[in-house]
Amino acid sequence: MWPWSRRVDVVQSWPGEWPLRLTGRTPSGVAVILRPLRLDDEAAYLAVRRDNVDWLGPWDATAPRPTPTTRSFGDLVAHHEAEAAQGRSLPFVVEVDGEFVGQLNVSNIVRGSFWSCAMGYWVARAWAGQGITPTAVAMAGDHCFGVLGLHRIEINIRPENVASLAVVRKLGLRDEGLRPRYLHIDGDWRDHRSFAVTADELGGSTLRERLTQSSQQSLLRHTDPAPQG
Question: Tell me: the pLDDT tens digits for 34-56?
Fold first, then answer.
């Protein structure tokens, strides 16, 4: 059994409770923590964003009608806390080895006849390609399905964002097609491809298990001996 395949630990486990902390491991065994954004994260947050401006800029959400008001880091934390307290989002920091490496936000949590949410994420370039992001998405997704009882998770990605497309491929999300000029990103309305998964599609499995299987299959493809002639 892979070390990462154990259950994600949930410190507060009843639906809607916040703050929330999730822990898990990548298929290679790297510990990943999802936790709330805190006021004392300001220096780390600003440093990571500054150092990764070229890496993240093309995928950052922007406002089609920007306002002259500048929001402080404290305002950002307060906004996230208010949304989480109302059960509308799960705004996580992604932490590895005690280091702030990115964010993952479960947003637009809607119940009623929908019971669905959207998910967005980013990770610093230095940590890309190491299984951190798909692990974080799987951890949050399994919490949404297993604890919150949601039915569907949606992730929208620009077609040019190869790194993010790799995340949903590893997790086996279904491609629902192109949404023209769907979100305002990097200063303009951009096309997005929409990917989704429902609880029914997992068939009793989890996203973490899907990722483990995908990683094992990838490892086998890269270690199979060449055919002998």
Answer: 999 999 999 999 999 999 999 99
The whole-number pLDDT of residue 141 equals 98
Summarize the confidence of residues 137-166 as an average pLDDT.
Answer: 97
Query: What's the pLDDT score for residue 11?
Result: 35
Amino acid present at 132: I
pTM score, whole prediction: 0.88
**Given a cut of 60, is residue 107 above it in pLDDT?**
yes
Q: Which domain holds residue 91?
A: 3-223
Residue 144 resides in a domain:
yes
**Neighbour count for residue 203 (Cβ, 10 Å):** 6
Q: Is residue 9 part of a domain?
A: yes
* SS3 track for the chain: CCHHHCCCEECCCCCCCCCCCEEEECCCCCEEEEEECCHHHHHHHHHHHHHCHHHHHHHCECCCCCCCCCCCHHHHHHHHHHHHHCCCCEEEEEEECCEEEEEEEEEEEECCCCCEEEEEEEECHHHCCCCHHHHHHHHHHHHHHHCCCCCEEEEEECCCCHHHHHHHHHHCCEEEEEEEEEEEECCEEEEEEEEEEEHHHHCCCCHHHHHHHHHHHHHHHHHCCCCCC
The pLDDT score that the predictor gives to residue 217 is 84
Asked, for residue 229, whether it belongs to a domain, the answer is no
CATH number at residue 218: 3.40.630.30
